[in-house]
Amino acid sequence: MFSMIINGELPGRFVWRDDRVVVFLTINPVTPGHVLVVPVAEVDHWEAVEHGLFDHLTDVARTLGQAVKRGFDAPRAGLMIAGLEVPHLHLHVFPAYKLEDFSFAAADPDPDPAELDKAAATIRATLREMGHGEFVPQD
């Protein structure tokens, strides 16, 4: 499924794209601004990914963590690797305000599409302000 989003066969709200990694909003956010950092290559298990790609994934996740923390005025940025819901490695990065934000049970099953669009725009603008515009897709 993620490969279909990456290839444009299914819609996605992209906020980052380089030759190895894409980042798009999840459709079930635990907090507004929750994104998925996904390798373009199909890798199922995080512990099986080659070192260079994992290093790049975590570098991009760190940058996105800074952006969502700043863009959503959050005290922390959360990072989780779950790996059960989709057989394609992805890192969850989200603004975190309290410990309960780290629970997928708190995820919004039906977020307002306008709010997702607004969150994507906030992240893109923040990444541009941080100097990462070359990796930020057009709105």
UniProtKB/TrEMBL annotation:
GO terms for biological process: nucleotide metabolic process. InterPro entries: Histidine_triad_CS, Histidine_triad_HIT, HIT-like, HIT-like_sf. PANTHER family: ADENOSINE 5'-MONOPHOSPHORAMIDASE HNT1 (PTHR46648:SF1), HIT FAMILY PROTEIN 1 (PTHR46648). A motif (Histidine triad motif) lies at residues 88-92. Pfam families: HIT. This is Hypothetical HIT-like (Histidine triad) protein. One of its GO terms (molecular function) is catalytic activity. Gene3D superfamilies: HIT-like. The active site is at H90 (tele-amp-histidine intermediate). It comes from Gordonia crocea. Residues 1-104 form the HIT domain.
